[in-house]
Amino acid sequence: MTEKTEISLLGARDKIDAIDTEIHNLLMKRAELVENIQSAKQALGPIVNAMHADREIEMFRRFSENHKGCLPIASLQRMFREMIATFSHLQCPFRVFILKGDPLYRDMARYFYGTVIEVIECDDVEQMLEHIITPTSDVALLPADAESLFRFDKQVNKTKNDDLTKKCHIFARLPFWDSAEEYGLYLPDMFVLGHAPMKPTKYDYSMFSIEANLETARTIMGELGFEIEYQVEYEQVLYCTIKKFVVTPTDILQDIERHFKKQDITLTCLGVYGKV
User: Fold this and answer.
1) Per-residue pLDDT tens over the stretch 105-127
2) What angle do CA 97, 150, 214 make, to 5 degrees?
3) For 87, phi and psi rounded to 5 degrees?
4) CA nearest 80: which of 67, 92, 93, 70?
5) H runs (alpha helix) in 2-72
6) CATH architecture, domain 204-274
7) Is 34 exposed, middle or buried (0-12, 13-18, 19+ CB in 10 A)?
8) Residue 229 in contact with residue 242, Cβ under 8 Å?
């Protein structure tokens, strides 16, 4: 190594150190802003939830559109996932409940909710739902398979509350990216359950349980101008999505419910999620 090369490397390292210091200072400033937000919210009453899946999705969408250079975008996303989860936890502490059995469930929880959040394993879906069925800041990760959706559906609708915003619901789907493997993420497809607010993100999907077969449901949804996307069936109940933000009370949902009711078909909206 020549003296000139060594000087050049030292200069580059000094610049990296300066950038690291700047990043640290900005993170501390961000923490101060979060404290200010927390104080403002507390002045209005108890903080019951600090999660905003819509804001997170919009953030990652911006990253996907604007990112350039050699830093893998998956690494950038992981850094921000840790930061978002930590700052949300500082505003309103929460836990993440998962099912026992598959180590990838814990990997998913850690990837999306960071290292400081408590992750608790449960024996089955019913036990997991016991922790989040009533209003709480905690969340649960539900495998995106037919049986898990069926058990969630039956448990949550014991509350007899027709207002989706006032009962436990699906408010996100992980990973946020349809092409997760392109980002190096080999993680299971899961729904996030809880009481977080549901807001539109531009690319939204509403999840329904329909006591009908796929052909009948597809026909009725088609008459309304909607195409069924994801679908699974269990115990003669169809679980499917349409690409539309539908949350009670809306004219769109009421119209959908009316059309199915005419055919004596029970339809329930289970939640909504956005995608990057």
Assistant:
1) 999 999 899 999 999 999 999 99
2) 135
3) -70, -35
4) 67
5) 3-44, 53-66
6) 2-Layer Sandwich (3.30)
7) middle
8) yes
Distance between CA atoms of 175 and 111, rounded to whole angstroms?
A: 10
What phi, psi does 63 have (nearest 5°)? -60, -45
pLDDT tens per residue across span 158-211: 766 667 778 999 999 998 876 656 666 678 899 999 999 888 888 899 999 999
Helix (H) or strand (E) holding 216: helix 214-223
Residue 128's pLDDT is what?
97
DSSP state of 183: G
Q: Phi and psi for 59 in degrees, rounded to 5? A: -65, -50
Q: No. of H helices and E strands in the chain? A: 8, 9
CB 184 within 8 A of CB 74: yes
What does the pLDDT look like over 239-273, one tens digit per residue?
999 999 987 667 889 999 999 999 999 999 999 99
37-40 long-range contacts (CB < 8 A, ≥24 apart) are 37/91, 38/90, 38/91
Ranges assigned E (strand) in 175-260 = 190-194, 204-210, 228-234, 237-242
Model confidence, pTM: 0.90
Distance CA 24, CA 91 (A): 20
